[in-house]
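ok here's the first one, seq then struct tokens
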Amino acid sequence: MMLAISETGLWSNLRVRKSRARHRTMTCSNSSNEGNTELGSVLGGRLYLGMDFGTSGARFALIDKQGTTHAEGKRDYPLFMALSGPKLRISLTKLTESLEKSEETMDWARSWKSTLFSLLEDVPSHLREIVTSISIDGTSATTLIVDSNTGEPLWRPFLYNESCPEALPTVRSIAPENHTVCSGSSTLCKLVSWWEREDSQRKSALLMHQADWLLWLLHGKIGVSDYNNALKVGYDPELDAYPSWLLSQPYSQILPSVRPPGTSIGHVKEDIRSQFGFPEDCVVCAGTTDSIAAFLAARASQPGKAVTSLGSTLAIKLLSTTRVEDARFGVYSHRLDDKWLVGGASNTGGAVLRQIFTDEQLEKLSANINPMVPSPLDYYPLKTAGERFPVADPNMAPRLDPRPQSDVEFLHGIFESIARIEAKGYGLLKDLGATEVDEVFTAGGGAKNDKWTKIRERVLGLPVSCASQTEAAYGAALLALKGAQ
């Protein structure tokens, strides 16, 4: 799955163009002669399409065999509300706190499907005809229960961060101690929660993850997943099979078949090909989760290399020769060919900063921080109570006191405290038996803050740099390239 892609591309003159549809395409130079020559060279090659379905929107990236990006774009999810009477479409900008309280009323499946076709439409039409393969990543543990004949959802999707604590006792009674599924937000807990409340539709039901379902819309072979997405339903990637303790359960009949990420599932359906102009030999490949796609994009290909994602939350992933699993600390391992991607996700991160500072304030205050001087402030920045990793404590309270008079000192203390949590996370992985980290690449919005990077470098005692590629869609495109090969 780790691909050696050179940094040179087929096009030497590229520019970025932003359209009203909120997507960007990398296009040829304005010179007509030069453009025709370069367009011909692209048409003589093949391109690989990856799509990332994240928490708030989706992106696509179109790359060639050398890893050069030829088109990319973004779409916000059109949010449809499943209200009594006609379903109501609401613009994303109008949804704030009310959205968080009404996620159960959102028709997410309809929104994701609409976004998928919008992204396909955003791919430049003259490039679609040379797309060789397609892959998609989705948010981990986002779960759909669908009709095995029609693919239509039988229940509203369970979102990635949704917890089903009522199912946890049942799951703990059947799974090995401290297994990854022993978390209220695991896919298995969501499946058990649905199974225990729904009788009439069990026989026709099928479990699919977000990426599985979206890929099914393209290839038409229902019930196919990948071993990254299937990890949190209990699939054992080391055995490459569902374990016996899971197969003995009555709901095992609705589990999907599992393939390695990036392997070919089948050709794009004829109706999709005709609608969008993809070639007859275009294949659809098994996907992965969004965080793994982001790791692949960073190309941290050797054991000891790690990627820290500094977005709304703090997530770390380390490439290890050893598999590490411990639900007590929110630690689990994904398989990457013959290695393991070990990590966890903390609730600290950029969401806390956005509660306190605007982007303009963050920029101005950061400029006055001396990153080489340690901050004496000891915080545990959380948006709300509860932590997942490196401490699993659903009742942990945020700690942001005392607040100094200087906002520069306050921000410095928050940066330093988040860096300490990151360091504790990597230390925990080592203590549990993972390969020791020796270099960290950074993805997410926090990667752009140079002062924070220098603070983290000092606290971690490791080289820290911004990943050359940070978009999960690029990692999904690498999987599409892998499948084509």
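and now the second one, same deal
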Amino acid sequence: MALGIRVCLFLVYSFTLAMVCAVLFSGTVQSYNRPPPRKDISVDYNKDDYHDSSPQQVHISLVGEDQMRVSWITKGSDSEARVDYGVSSGVYGFTKTGTTSSYRYVTYESGSIHDVVIGPLTPNTLYYYRCGGASSPSAELTLKTPPAAFPIKFALAGDLGQTDWTTSTLDHISKSNYDILLLPGDLSYADAIQPRWDSFGRLVEQLASQRPWMVTQGNHEVEKIPLVHTTPFTAYNSRWPMPFQQSASESNLYYSFDAAARGIHVVMLGSYTDFSHDSAQYKWLEADLRKVNRTKTPWLVVVVHAPWYNSNTAHQGEPESNDMKTAMEELLYSARVDVVFSGHVHAYERFARVYNDKADKCGPIYITIGDGGNREGLASEYIDPKPEISIFREASFGHGQLEFLNGSHAQWTWHRNQDDVAIASDSVWFTSLSFDPSCKL
């Protein structure tokens, strides 16, 4: 419903387009009650802080084992897609160049979007870099590459949005000393208001420019309007390119990558692109999982937006959850996936190891973390009585931390943002299924 309302407001200047919105969204109803959210925030473009060629909205992502993609936007088109970098402040012994693009969305035209892949990079190393070349008024930034061995820590937050809750979540994540961030969809909550994508990029830049952020899409990234803008994911694909080619994927909406010298294989799936048995995504997933050698890669993690298991009253019966689960659950179970993270539901929930709606010691652990700080508030109503397979559930904003100590053991901790203090309200140790003899294939 929020997407429809915001799109209509955005297009209200046009009588014809406003009528389209009214027809599309007039029948939408809110199916559950949420407590009041915190206020929206906006990180605006300040002419005193930026020149047209000043890099902004900088974020980085992994590309293969020893490379990193640096992405940023400039207001003008004369900035060079170039990154200078090195291991000492002000001393840039390496330079790489990349590509520049832009996109249009109705009446909006993006700035120049620059993407540069740098490397090879040394693991667990602090690099200093600047975007745009020496002629660009670019401040020096730093990034740290993940370690190439255990231990390694992931931070996880879904449905971030841009509210005061978001800033609280980001502040807690910044103190977690994480190596890689996973985001299971619903990033900016721009909902077709394209300047909100720019605001989000500036909001997360401080963190996203320092550690790799690996994301997948949610329903708020679709931004497809019949008769008005018929191409889905335009802003998402333009602004947040992920390394899908490296995993033989045909789409930026689903891909995989390795961490800790291939000790961990992470699969990022797309809830809002075709997942049926004859789809490109299904065939890719089947082939990707088949390539994983669990003697060399003991951990297998999956990230998807719409949860396959959910005891909250919110988002029940949706095809992106139910039909995708029906289509793909057997693949994950047969591959002995260790844990599946999802967003979408604005509350936290951790399930037991599950397969086919029943507890199964060889099934994945399912965890919902769709409560990073979105403007819609929390989904506070749960199905009663609580299903036996649901171990812990809590309607709270926050983030999670998953630290892989070695090839066999990892610790998961959920940190809620209650009273703006990161309280560890749920914590559990995981043992990789690759170390369970009874789950050997």
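notes on #2: The radius of gyration is 21 Å. Confidence is low (pLDDT under 50) at residues 1-35.
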